[in-house]
Write a structure and sequence with these properties.
single chain, 194 residues, alpha+beta, Enolase-like, domain 1, three-stranded antiparallel β-sheet, two-stranded antiparallel ribbon, 5 strands, globular
């Protein structure tokens, strides 16, 4: 069973010492920041929601489920839409990795293997930060060393964080994206179309 330890920013734990203090009061000389225009947010979301071209979508490797887009293509698309962003490993999850047998090869079980991670993606839209936290896992933790498990789990969490922002979301929909409608829904509400 995987262990969970609370992240440093969970309620009831000490605050992050690197967080900048927030001003207690606003005055006419220090007005509050205005909300970003809805059109700017909608434009970013619409770009993130645009499905990847079919040529970029790859079939699932043997033994895996679902189509995918290579990590490098996800990263390029993200950078081209939102620019720089922050991506942090919040927590490493260790647990029991069951023995795996494949043909004549056996990978022994491990009691304290890296089996997953919790990561946070922070993007800036219209001057405001938006954060998504997701879990990534390693499908076969007994087959790899902890460094490889960590890399695979972080890669999984990275794509899942972007999916929560709309990027590649169509790949999680059933029947090859046939159930995907977010891009069309956003087109209906595009203020530039009015």
């Amino acid at each position: 069973m995987a262990r969970y330890t609370p992240a440093a920013d969970d309620p009831g734990t000490d605050p992050d010492p690197y967080d900048e203090p927030k001003p207690a009061k606003r005055s006419p000389a220090n007005p509050p920041a205005t909300n970003p225009p809805v059109a700017a947010d909608a434009s970013i979301l619409r770009q993130l929601a645009t499905p990847f071209p079919p040529a970029m979508v790859k079939a699932a490797p043997a033994g895996k489920y679902g189509e995918y887009v290579p990590h490098s293509d996800v990263n390029q698309r993200a950078l081209s839409i939102v620019g720089f962003y922050d991506f942090d490993v919040v927590q490493v999850i260790r647990g029991y990795a069951e023995e795996i047998k494949s043909g004549n090869k056996v990978w022994p079980s491990r009691a304290d293997a890296i089996v997953g991670v919790v990561c946070r993606l922070t993007i800036r839209v219209g001057g405001e930060e938006h954060s998504i936290t997701e879990v990534g896992t390693e499908d076969n933790p007994a087959m790899n060393n902890d460094a490889e498990n960590l890399k695979n789990a972080v890669s999984d969490a990275y794509k899942r964080c972007w999916m929560r922002n709309g990027l590649g979301l169509h790949l999680w929909c059933e029947k090859g994206g046939a159930g995907y409608w977010l891009d069309r829904q956003l087109d209906k509400h595009d203020p530039s179309e009015a």
